[in-house]
Amino acid sequence: MDDRSTTTPPARTGLRGLPRNVWAVSLTSFFMDVSSEMVINIVPLFLYSVLGVKTNLIGLIEGVAEATASLLKVFSGWLSDRLRARKWLAVAGYGLSAIAKPFFYWANSWGAVAGVRWVDRVGKGVRTAPRDALVADSIDERQRGLAFGFHRAADTGGAVLGLLIALGVVWLTQSRSAALTRPTFQTIVLISLIPAALAVLSLALGARDVPVAGTRARPRISFRGLGRRFGLFMLVVGVFDLGNSSDAFLVLRAQERGLSVLGVLGMLITFNLVYTLVSAPAGSLSDRVGRRRVIIGGWLVYAAIYLGFALAGRGWHIWVLYAIYGVYYGLAYGTAKAMVADLVPVDMRGTAYGTYNAILGILDFPASAIAGVLWQGIGGWGGLGPSAPFYFGAALALIAAILLAALFPARSRAPQNEGAL
Length: 421
Known about the structure:
Helices cover about 75% and strands about 0% of the residues. It contains 15 helices and no strands. The protein is globular, with a radius of gyration of 20 Å.
């Protein structure tokens, strides 16, 4: 099967028609999410319950980790464009994250945890842009939404399995304890090393670099080179992301409303099951009705859910809302990435994905810092309370949805190369 995207219609459509690279990347993401989700989602609980770290500092750790890695996403995207090669940069990024994970076992301070998180995010920064460009280069544009949706479904399917494993470990080792313990955390870390190694092997052995046909100018890291419509799209996405603080705040909100460790893990499993079920159909839907409509729908769902997080009075309220949160992720996350590919020239996709991911990563720091300050305040100010970050996020999501509708008006019939915006 030819892995290159061409103008010739594929012989088969649907999941069976997806090329080898999409399957290899999806399998890699599946294994890495098995490994990552069983650990990363309980890191906030480890910091809070075992190390005694305050919630505003936990948000700061998450924000700094994402922001530190963000510039690497630009560099790796640009380099993959320049080398006309995506695979081995992605392999290196997955490998770095796999190497970092064992050090969680020995972490005994918030600084040590932050250091391991930083290295893990550097690995993500190296791999994300070339991996996404590899998927985009390997698929016909008429199935691009399906490819990204399937990749996200595999990714979140791995998250479900990873969280089920973590839940099983917690059940067997501390089912009567409401707070996470160090031995339980260390056991989960050790188990996570196996799927991390399988993730690296899956990409290294399963994927093939896709040669880019024709002679194209050398890629540049420049918004001008990526086009005005891409710049407008990033402006709108930036407004949304400024209110999209780390999901660590959602985990802490769940614990604050009374959920135990087992309850939090069950909530996360429910979320990922919903996300998995929605991702591929939402991607396919965006191929038919346009990315714009699907993203706007996802952001409106987000606004409603965050309003619910602000008003929730009990732990089970958070559980239900977090499940619906998976609908937002399924609608908007993979679809936004597919829209990036629609907006830029083929030879600039790596740079575009690097820029896209970098801007989101940079905004993660102020988003989480704002959420922490709104929650617990700063200096002598005690903040506005646990509901405040969620009111803020709901408002910005609504504004972003309105801006996207206004700046990208619907078309009666959109050109194929613009993804039916």
